[in-house]
Amino acid sequence: MPGRDKFQLWTSDELEADRKRSADIFRDERLTEETQEYHDRFDKNRDLVDALLAETRDLRDLSVLDPPTLAKREFLKPFRYIAGPPISEGDLQEVTGLSSVSEKEIRNNFEARDIIVQVIYDGHDRSRFPWIGHDYEPDEHETTAAALATAALMSANDSEVARKAKQRAKVEKFCKGLEERGFEKVKSRKIQRREDLPGPGQFCGRASIKDGDKGGQADFVIRRWDGLAVPVECKSSSTELNSHKRIFVETVPRAEGWKEILGSSTVSAAILAGPYAINDLQDAQTRGLAIWWFHDLSVAYDFLAKG
């Protein structure tokens, strides 16, 4: 079908309108919804820290953290944040050398408990908890300051995790929309040539389209009913400066590689959220990247429905 690999090229005014709307949505999420969510998380995390300090006599008696107690999420989470810097569950597993730091693994394992406690004790934040290891009882001002700082660290990380979850939800919404429009989701795969693509009317997630240094992983590979291959990258930016990296370091080089590997009848696309610089959007279009937005997925669906 002649011209089937042609996609909508937006004018400067159209790109400006969409990038402004995307930035406004980002700003509204950060200033309203996320602000309240942060305060809710802070209150919950402050309660967790206070409970840990009360249970351990302000961390001066860690012997009370027996395996069943330490294994509880309400104790292990704030305890990980005693370290400076805090230790994630994944990092805790690595630095302790344990096969798992799950509640099931720790609950009846005294050796695992001892290793975890020693790692956190040795790496405790000396600025927030200066009394640990110095055998003195902290005053109320010290414990309050430590609890506030620790709850803030926990809440900031929780907010970052929640932001990533919201972006994943946007991607899942796009995926669900494809299925509602008749596309069949098939298993992920490595794609080295056109024969490896999903069939017409199918799509897969997290596909590797790579040949040597060319290409890379795509968030989705969609096959229109006319056979057009559409690798898609989903990107969320937090600043216009950050958007340059999202587009020209992470997306455009991959997209050009996908086109080279898969040949003609291929359109590489990016679905964007957050602030983006107008010049980056214009240049990306010029280099063959279709620009779509999470705030208006109808454009993507209309293109994919063709053929």
Short structural description:
Helix content is 53%, strand content 14%. The protein has 307 residues and is an alpha/beta fold.
- Mean pLDDT figure: 93
**What is the end-to-end distance?**
8 Å
Q: Helix tally?
A: 11
Radius of gyration: 25 Å
Order of helices and strands: HHHHHHHEEEEEHHEHEH
Strand content: 5-15%
**Class of secondary structure makeup:** alpha/beta
Q: What are the segments in which pLDDT stays under 50 over at least 5 consecutive residues?
A: none
CATH top level class name of the largest domain: Alpha Beta
Q: Portion of residues in helices?
A: 40-55%
CATH architecture tag of the largest domain: 3-Layer(aba) Sandwich
- The fold-level CATH name of the largest domain is Trna Endonuclease, Chain: A, domain 1
Shape: elongated
Give an overview of the whole structure:
The protein has 307 residues and is α/β, with parallel strands linked by helices. The chain has 2 domains: 12-31 and 166-305, Trna Endonuclease, Chain: A, domain 1, CATH 3.40.1350; 33-161, no CATH class. The protein contains 11 helices and 7 strands. Strands 1, 2, 3, 4, 5, 6 and 7 form a 7-stranded mixed beta sheet that branches. Strand 4 (214-223) and strand 5 form a beta hairpin. The longest helix is centred in the N-terminal third of the chain and has 44 residues, at 12-55. The protein starts with 11 loop residues before the first helix and ends with a helix. The mean pLDDT is 93.
